[in-house]
Amino acid sequence: MGKACEYLSTMKAIKSVDIPEIEKKWLRYYDEMPEHLDYHKGSIYDMLACAVEKYPDYTAMEYFNVTFTFRELMDKIDTVAKALTKLNVSENECVTICMPNIPEAIFLVYAINKIGAVCNVIHPLSSREEIAEALAGAQSTTVFTTDVSFPKVKGLTDNIVVCEVSNSMNTLLKTGYNLKNRKNLKYPASVIRWKDFIKSSGNAECYVKRGQNDPAVIIYSGGTTGKSKGIVLTNLCFNSLATQCYAVCKEARAGNSILSALPIFHGFGLCVSVHVPLTLGLKCIVVPKIDTAKLNDLINKKKPNLLPAIPTMLKVISNNKSLGPKSLESVKVILSGGDYLSDDLRKKVLDYFKSCGSDAHIQVGYGLSEATAFIAATSENIEETDNLGIANPDTVIKICDPETNCELPFGEVGEICVNGPTVMMGYLNEKEETENVIRTHDDGITWLHTGDLGFLDEEGILHFTSRLKRMIISNGYNIYPTELENIINKCKYVASSVVVGIKDKIRQEAPKAVIVLKNGIQRTAEVEKEIAEFCKKNIAKNAQPKEIEFTDALPTTKVGKINYRVFERKKETPEETKTK
């Protein structure tokens, strides 16, 4: 129905190379882990097919007590691929998935890849304007969504397939869900229901051979405003990450299980919590929405061996009431990422899990979506805990002067730069932005500039100090204040604004907007309400300002820039208030 995205055809994969002149002091901690690995040469579908061949009768996925073996999973994927072919989806066409973690979304990721198309994965809580912009940028005319997100997608394209979140539930749960959640949605005649989409599959052959350097998935940075950038990841990005995880995490082994609750529109969710375990023979326990109040019950009931989580999730788990001395005993390793994990929280989490029967250790991963979410991890061979660990095999980290790109000595703080097989192709339709973060240095090597400041100590262990750019991390999601300011400033009542991060008990950080009204505009309840409604309409749900403050003028620094730090008030939590 659509056409190949023209911009994708102009993009080339970044070559990762072994760089002998870089002193890799971290190799001393590799123990039995090899410095170099062999990576699958095909597509993400091809690598999954290898796992299916090895583990056909292992359980690949569980969703609300419904399970799929690896053989059944591949049958589902192949059926979806045939149905996509019937929709006339072409090679290199971007097919949009705007869905939470449900089995059908995962079938789609691999089916789209099988027929040579590219997954364009969008946050289902994005605003209608954000979704429209992502579709336009990827030249995507085919969208898969759910009954929950359909109202925002309606009318944006003529080719919409709707799948109910309850589709793969058992009959009892499906009935209960539909009674509780269905809102009498009426779909236009042009909308295709999932069951009808599957019925159309037929028996046509639909495999298109793809190479490791071909684009596979587009995910979006930040996901906070229409300005978020499409990150183009290759087959090699995903497949090399899976092979690296096998080497780095000893619990990532066939037959174990993982809680796949982190959303697939996030790098940590799709790459680490879905593709890695499936291609290594693990069972994915798929959860469409995280209910923090019931996290402990979920872990106790589903008994995952690997628990990927952001620090806010770990904080909630360790604050919840214990379910008993054996309630979390299944957990072997906690994979923490998405934000900084303090030593205090680490200790609290480990103590809590131990009291619940688990001897799990915490493995902290460092990465960013532009490098497929994971480039370094802590090691049990390193006694010190306040660090980001060591680079993955075939991944080289160096610290550079942000202005000159010159490499800095061990122990000196600079920008963290990376070369390796997981580095993205670039940003979709953003040549200038791509060249700003992927740079060829004087050594002739191409490096990804992470935007994070840190240092490598004398042992080659990576440490994080701060961020080069303004950024708020809320529940593991990146929120860029400048982008929110650009949106808020378009409101007819607003003269200028500044957005800062403030402390939040649940999300750790949340956006706060400080607004100067235009001349002649009086601050009234009606004006405040309309500004709030403007934000609600134009900013994604997870990036909505927690507070809106009004001021007569924004203070500036000596060089005339807005002094946003004045407004970075950190709200006290009840616990902190009690201790003072």
Question: How would you characterize the overall build of this protein?
Answer:
- By secondary structure, this protein is α/β, with parallel strands linked by helices.
- Among the domains are: 397-467, Luciferase, Domain 3 (Luciferase, domain 3); 475-579, ANL, C-terminal domain (GMP Synthetase, Chain A, domain 3).
- The strands form 6 sheets. The chain has an 8-stranded mixed sheet with strand order 7-6-5-3-4-8-9-19, sandwiched between helices.
- Helix 1 (44-54) crosses helix 3 (103-114), helix 2 packs across helix 3 (103-114) and helix 11 packs across helix 12 (343-355).
List descriptors.
580 residues, alpha/beta, Luciferase, domain 3, GMP Synthetase, Chain A, domain 3, five-stranded mixed sheet, 16 helices, 27 strands, 23% strand, disordered C terminus
What fraction of the residues are assigned to beta strands by DSSP? 15-25%
Low-pLDDT stretches = 570-580
* Largest sheet geometry: 8 strands, mixed
Provide the structure class: alpha/beta
The helix content is 25-40%
| Mean pLDDT, all residues | 90
Q: In DSSP terms, counting alpha (H) and pi (I) runs of 4 or more, how many helices?
A: 16
Radius of gyration: 24 Å
Shape: globular
Q: So, the CATH homologous superfamily of one domain? A: ANL, C-terminal domain
State the total count of DSSP E strands.
27
